[in-house]
Amino acid sequence: MVKYTNRHGDEFTFTKQENGNILWEGPFTYMRMGGDTEDPTFIDPSGGPYLEKGKMLSHIVWDEDFNVIIEGFKNIKGGFIIQTKPHIYDPNDMSHLADTKIIGGIINTSE
């Protein structure tokens, strides 16, 4: 479990479930939801944290145990179930550098 305190001092907890999803609990008295309430694209409690489909949860709660991608939200009493999928990371994948020409450590942009 990870605790997250937002800028208003409200405390939220994130608890990993056996199936890989995350139980998100806290004071959701004031919040915004994007899209259909049955299938929101984002949830934003007053003071944060702002969570959105497609985002990496570990970048918000700052815990490597939550290195998952948010796929959706299910509204439950007292909070939400964050539906997730694993983030598969290959440290040897350098494909993001494929279009870059580097010469001696300097990026060549003259072409």
Give a quick summary of the entry.
This protein is mainly beta. 4% of the residues lie in helices and 45% in strands.
What does this structure look like?
The protein has 111 residues and is mainly β. The chain has one domain. Helices cover 4% and strands 45% of the residues. The protein contains one helix and ten strands. It has one helix at residues 58-61, and strands spanning 2-5, 11-16, 22-25, 31-36, 39-45, 51-52, 68-76, 79-86, 102-103, 106-107. Strands 1-2-3-8-7 form a five-stranded antiparallel sheet, with no helix packed on it. It has a three-stranded antiparallel sheet with strand order 4-5-6, with no helix packed on it. A hairpin with a 2-residue loop joins strand 7 (68-76) and strand 8. The longest helix is centred in the middle third of the chain and has 4 residues, at 58-61. The radius of gyration is 18 Å and the shape is elongated. The mean pLDDT is 87.
Which features would summarize this protein structure in a list?
single chain, 111 residues, mainly beta, five-stranded antiparallel beta sheet, three-stranded antiparallel beta sheet, 1 helix, 10 strands, 45% strand, elongated
